[in-house]
Every structure is written in C-alpha cells, then in structure tokens.
Design a protein that fits this description.
The protein is an alpha+beta fold. It contains 8 helices and 4 strands, in the order βαβααααααββα. α3 packs across α7.
C-alpha cells in the first residue's frame, strides 16, 4: 500500500468527510484518517491550524453543535475562546481539515481546491 501523503481530520459519519474521502480514493491518493471522536485533538495542533487558517475558518459556526451553545458561549469569541470550545467539543471544528504536511492545510472540502493541491 502507498504511504499516506495527507491526513484527513474529522468525524467518519459527516457527509462532507465522506465526500472528501471518496474524492481522495477516486484519485488514488493515500491518506491517514484522524477521528476526532475517537482520538481527540491536541491543543497545539488546533493552535497551529488557527495560526495558518485563522480561527474564524477552523471554527464551524454553522454546525448544530455551535448553534446549540448558550448565547454567552458564542459571544466575545476570540482565538483562545474558540480553541477552548473546539477542544471541549471537536464537532465544532470545520470538516474536513486536510493536512498535507510541510505547513500546507486545507479547511473544508471543494473538489477543485483538492485537485489543485494534488497537482504534480
């Protein structure tokens, strides 16, 4: 088997994760999968993602987990508060996060962006 060239972070039953994984498989791209629900997420990794992509991109405010939060938790958001929320409930991390290594990160799934990232 080919050595993974990327790591997909997410939750297996998420529709967007399924689309991203299908796209990768159809294009013969080996990847590792990191399940937030089973394996959690480290603070240092989240901080790195927020530094690269911005916490506003990494935090999924459109999801049901975030929307179900009390209003007080949603107010006065900054990077520290967003990271604390995502550590407590990894479902609030936008999915998928595709780590291509060497500092390259893609948050979310769009076939054209994946295609451009994997062009030789």
């Amino acid at each position: 088997m080919t050595k993974p060239t990327a790591t997909v972070y997410g939750i297996p039953n998420c529709d967007t994760i399924k689309k991203a994984r299908t796209w990768l498989a159809e294009h013969g791209i080996a990847y590792a999968f990191h399940d937030y629900k089973k394996d959690g997420i480290e603070r240092a990794r989240l901080e790195s993602w927020c530094k690269k992509a911005g916490w506003e991109t990494v935090l999924n405010r459109a999801g049901t987990t975030f929307r179900a939060l009390p209003d007080a938790d949603k107010q006065d958001l900054d990077q520290d508060k967003a990271i604390a929320l995502m550590l407590e409930q990894p479902s609030m991390i936008k999915r998928p996060v595709l780590d291509l290594g060497k500092g390259k990160l893609i948050v979310g799934f769009k076939p054209e962006i994946y295609a451009a990232a994997f062009k030789a």
